[in-house]
Automatic annotation (TrEMBL):
<dbReference type="InterPro" id="IPR014971">
    <property type="entry name" value="KGK"/>
</dbReference>
<protein>
    <recommendedName>
        <fullName>KGK family protein</fullName>
    </recommendedName>
</protein>
<dbReference type="Pfam" id="PF08872">
    <property type="entry name" value="KGK"/>
</dbReference>
Length: 91
């Protein structure tokens, strides 16, 4: 990606730096509520045709290409599972 198309104008950036750039570049300080508490709005419901009040809030998240392997909640979970297998073993 060329630096002129980068949000932070750098080749690499931390999520906090991207967020700061988005707030400063795309949203003026008076509009920061788009990222925090949200902006009041109404949407028209498809079913029923009524208006529903709420807020629009902009969020973004980092999603890695490879999902991390789930970790045991406790280092002892593997031993507990092994103990359960041994206890329930029927020859």
């Amino acid at each position: 990606m060329s630096l002129d198309k980068s949000v932070t104008k750098t080749s690499t950036a931390k999520v906090s730096e991207i967020r700061t750039s988005l707030i400063g570049y795309y949203l003026q300080p008076c509009n920061q509520r788009w990222l925090s508490s949200g902006v009041d709005c109404e949407v028209l419901l498809v079913n029923g045709g009524k208006w529903r009040k709420g807020k629009i809030r902009l969020r973004f998240e980092f999603v890695p290409n490879e999902l991390a392997q789930p970790q045991s909640e406790s280092p002892l979970d593997e031993f507990r599972q092994l103990e359960e297998m041994i206890t329930n073993f029927v020859p």
